[in-house]
């Protein structure tokens, strides 16, 4: 069996949630920092968007826009062209915090 080596890719986070690999980078929510970040393999972090209601699950729609679960306010947010908007409000269907999500190829 091949020997494997572990290394830290990103330090300083609060609590990482909903990790995804997308277009050559690691994307992750940090719900205590209220951020969604893109992290390259060399550990360079770019904060893509801030989500006040605590971000969690991540996905991408067919048009390339990012969707993010906003845990505390029961919304799925869409981030496109630098703008964050409500994609779906699930308040009437949610008794607690939202968490993860899955996006199909059809969106």
Automatic annotation (TrEMBL):
Coiled-coil regions listed: none
Q: Which domain of life is it from?
A: Bacteria
Annotated SMP-30/Gluconolactonase/LRE-like region domain ranges read: 17-107
Tell me the Gene3D superfamilies matching this sequence.
Answer: TolB, C-terminal domain
Residue ranges annotated as transmembrane are none
Q: What is this protein called?
A: SMP-30/Gluconolaconase/LRE-like region-containing protein
**Gene source species:** Geodermatophilus siccatus
What lineage does the source organism belong to?
Bacteria, Bacillati, Actinomycetota, Actinomycetes, Geodermatophilales
């Amino acid at each position: 069996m091949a020997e494997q080596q572990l290394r830290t890719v990103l330090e300083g986070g609060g609590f990482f949630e909903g990790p995804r690999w997308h277009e050559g980078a690691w994307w992750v929510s940090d719900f205590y920092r209220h951020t969604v970040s893109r992290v390259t393999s060399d550990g360079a972090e770019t904060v893509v968007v801030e989500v006040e209601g605590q971000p969690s699950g991540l996905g991408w729609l067919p048009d390339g826009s990012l969707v993010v679960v906003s845990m505390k306010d029961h919304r799925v947010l869409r981030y496109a062209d630098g703008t964050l908007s409500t994609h779906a409000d699930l308040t009437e269907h949610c008794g607690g915090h939202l968490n993860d999500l899955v996006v199909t190829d059809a969106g």
